[in-house]
Automatic annotation (TrEMBL):
It comes from Lentibacillus salicampi. Pfam families: Sulf_transp. It is a multi-pass membrane protein. The lineage of its organism: Bacteria, Bacillati, Bacillota, Bacilli, Bacillales. This is YeeE/YedE family protein. One of its GO terms (cellular component) is plasma membrane.
Length: 419
């Protein structure tokens, strides 16, 4: 696989902080003040106009975005490194994240109540053609678009200009996917949702033990692949020492994995469902289409429980609030690290972002979620569809390795070091 070097997406860009272990940029104080001001205004607005859940979710979103940026915690790059050269370091951080998540999710789902007294439910979705096609398309799309759903949000917050294009077409693709979803879910074959805890009869304790065993098996496979292929290791990133590392420099992937799992569990306890991202994209795009006279309310996707979202403010949508928090949290993290900077866009890079965004948006709707809602949230909820999503997205990644050089995007080789 040849390697192109003229364009690199955020999850594989040679970061400005990758110089010396103690060579950190100065904090960008005007941006920090501006970000905090925007956050405060948004918080006051939510407290004044929405229920008590929304301000809490904004804080959770801020912490998610801050964590994602500080650790450069990637899903796209983890899949690509494994598929291209057999490096499984980042994927093993996913496994730790999932292990911590199922440990928290098991008692929460078994108990069945949130902090505010409402019920809780995980993401358990059907397994069928829709899932297989959607996850595969998402896998291709995230490799062309330069980031997954969470990666797109934190890249936008960090100022990666081309990711604004990815986000725009992510929204378009998700909206079209919402319009087409009844065909994929009602007219094509699918099995009923399968929960390792309830469908199988294992219970949440048995499902937790089975999940931990599966994570261990996958980790062992990645180590075996690395032993055979001897891939390059991920290069260490500079960071401050001691408690200052919380604010300055890079976080270890494994520390971020634990934090993300805890924050997802808190999201489940606060709003009654796990962290998700892309349903908000379908809402945003549908509201824009509705503004221009499209009868989106007649779409099957917006019938039933989803119908109310079209008639209310987007700030009443908990996923929207989480997404805004992720963007703002990443912005603050980049400014604190002195790293916020708008970047240039090339024609081929922009084209890849358009195609990648469309594929991710459309694929996420078909697959009942993205790398967060379907993969992270699904597996954490003991749903079989989360595992199948990961397999199909990895298959899409293999195909995308052949497509990336056509758009000037790099493909890791055995001679590369990873940032």
């Amino acid at each position: 696989m040849s390697s192109a070097t003229n364009v690199q997406p955020i999850d594989e860009v040679k970061d400005p902080i990758q110089r010396k272990s103690t060579d950190l940029n100065k904090p960008q104080m005007p941006l920090i003040i501006g970000g905090l001001t925007i956050g405060a205004i948004l918080m006051i607005y939510l407290m004044a106009t929405q229920n008590s859940v929304q301000p809490l979710l904004l804080v959770i979103g801020l912490l998610l975005g801050y964590t994602l940026f500080h650790a450069r915690f990637g899903f796209t790059s983890a899949f690509r490194r494994l598929a291209s050269v057999g490096n499984g370091q980042a994927l093993r951080s996913h496994l730790l994240m999932l292990a911590v998540a199922v440990t928290f999710f098991a008692p929460i789902l078994a108990f069945g109540y949130s902090f505010f007294g409402g019920g809780v439910s995980g993401y358990v979705s059907p397994v069928g053609i829709s899932l297989l096609v959607g996850a595969f398309l998402f896998g291709v799309g995230m490799q062309l678009g330069g980031g997954c759903a969470s990666g797109t949000l934190y890249a936008v917050g960090g100022g990666r200009t081309v990711m604004f294009i990815t986000l725009l077409f992510f929204i378009v693709g998700s909206t079209v996917g919402a319009q087409h979803l009844p065909f994929w879910t009602e007219d094509l074959p699918a099995f009923e949702p399968v929960s390792l805890a309830t469908t199988t009869g294992f219970g949440y304790g048995g499902a937790w033990a089975l999940s931990i065993a599966l994570f261990g098996l996958i980790a062992w496979i990645t180590l075996a692949v690395e032993k055979r292929k001897q891939p390059p290791k991920m290069a260490p990133k500079p960071s401050a020492s001691g408690w200052k590392r919380i604010f300055r420099g890079s976080w270890p992937l494994f520390a971020a994995a634990v934090v993300l799992a805890i924050l997802n569990a808190l999201t489940l306890m606060i709003r009654g469902t796990p962290w998700g991202i892309t349903s908000a994209f379908a809402l945003w795009g549908s509201k824009v289409a509705q503004f221009f006279g499209v009868d989106v309310a007649s779409w099957g996707y917006w019938q039933g429980a989803n119908a109310a979202a079209l008639e209310t403010s987007i700030f009443a949508d908990s996923t929207t609030v989480l997404n805004l928090g992720v963007i703002l949290g990443a912005f603050l993290a980049s400014a604190v690290g002195g790293l916020f900077k708008f970047t240039t866009i090339t024609g081929r890079n922009a084209t890849a972002s358009v195609i990648g965004g469309l594929l991710m948006g459309y694929g996420a709707r078909l697959a009942f979620g993205c790398n967060i809602g379907a993969y992270f949230g699904g597996i954490a909820s003991f749903s079989l569809h989360g595992y199948i999503w990961g397999i199909m997205a990895l298959a899409g990644t293999f195909i995308a390795l052949y497509l990336r050089p056509k758009f000037g995007l790099s493909v890791p080789t055995s001679k590369d070091s990873f940032c």
